[in-house]
UniProtKB/TrEMBL annotation:
Pfam family, one: EAL
GO molecular function per UniProt: cyclic-guanylate-specific phosphodiesterase activity
Stored SUPFAM superfamilies: EAL domain-like (SSF141868)
Protein name according to UniProt: EAL domain-containing protein
Species of provenance: Sphingomonas ginkgonis
Superkingdom of origin organism: Bacteria
Signal sequence bounds: none
EAL domain boundaries: 6-258
InterPro entries documented for this protein: Cyclic-di-GMP_PDE-like (IPR050706), EAL_dom (IPR001633), EAL_sf (IPR035919)
Length: 260
């Protein structure tokens, strides 16, 4: 039964990928010091006639298991970079964040491919940030060579969901990251739990000590925002600021931000 469902989902996903029926939405991230839009994170969406809205937490691992992660990554990057180019033309001035599966980093020539895609579209590679989550099977340290190649090209690297899974302090020191994203679990807990606040503060101070930018994800309440500001967090992202938006809604949204 499970196998049958996985097969059906997989076929549906492959068709959606081939027929260009996936889409990307974009979530703003704003700097706490001045409320400016500084980054936009691209997130993939799949709306299926049979399965309805399937979350990426469901189909990204499926794509990883069945050899479809590279085509998904390339489709997503192409779509996102084109959208970014259009925004640059409209005067929207922002860095772009894109989620990469650790599996795609196993190819040593992947950084060259990304650089070529940026060059072809004339979008600034040094304003691209790749967000990585450590998979259960592949410690990021094994991907050091690929990560270093990205950094040489000026492409930023963020460690996503920091504080969960296998991400560790050692990795932060050894790997060439430029940004840390504090997992929303800690953000959600911070107002009620003194322990969570202590951990968030320690993560922020540690990241700053290493010269990294700190983004907090999943910010949903004004109280969380206040706390994060008091603790010295740089950038926030979450429903309180904005949900992931369809591309045509981002520019009007950003135009409505208070001038400071
Ligand atoms: P992530 O990179 O940690 O992305 C953040 C997730 O939190 C997104 O879920 C986003 O919609 C959601 N979110 C944003 N603000 C809030 C908030 O205030 N509260 C709560 N509760 N949630 C919030 P989404 O889009 O379902 O993505 C889930 C995960 O799937 C992502 O986690 C990322 O790991 C992966 N993913 C998404 N798009 C891509 C992609 O294009 N490629 C790859 N490889 N992975 C992707
Ligand atoms: Ca992310
Ligand atoms: Ca995350
Ligand atoms: Ca996540």
């Amino acid at each position: 039964m499970r196998v049958g469902l996985e097969r059906g989902l997989l076929d549906g996903f492959e068709r959606a990928l081939i027929n260009n029926r996936l889409s990307m939405v974009y979530q703003p991230k704003v700097r706490l010091s001045d409320g400016k839009l500084v980054r936009v994170e691209a997130l993939v969406r799949w709306e299926d006639s049979r399965y309805g809205s399937v979350p990426p937490s469901r189909f990204v691992p499926l794509a990883e298991r069945h050899g479809l992660i590279d085509p998904l990554t390339q489709w997503g990057l192409r779509t996102t970079l084109r959208q970014w180019l259009a925004w640059c033309g409209e005067g929207l001035d922002t860095c772009l964040a894109f989620n990469i599966s650790a599996l795609s980093l196993q190819h040593l020539d992947f950084p060259d491919l990304v650089e070529r895609m940026c060059r072809a579209l004339e979008v600034p590679a040094d304003r691209l940030v790749l967000e990585l989550t450590e998979g259960a099977t592949q410690p990021l340290i094994k991907l050091m060579d690929t990560l270093t190649r990205f950094r040489i090209k000026g492409i930023g690297l963020a460690i996503d969901d920091f504080g969960t899974g296998y991400s560790s302090l050692m990795q932060l020191r050894q790997l060439p990251f430029t940004e840390v994203k504090i997992d929303r679990f800690f953000v959600a807990d911070a107002p009620e739990s003194r322990d969570s606040r202590v951990i968030v503060k320690a993560m922020i101070d540690l990241a700053h000590g290493l010269g990294l930018t700190v983004t907090a994800e999943g910010v949903e309440t004004a109280e969380q925002l206040r706390l994060l500001r008091d603790l010295g967090c740089d950038v926030v992202q979450g429903y309180l600021v904005a949900a992931p938006l369809e591309p045509e809604r981002l520019a009007p949204w950003s135009a409505a931000l208070p001038e400071r």
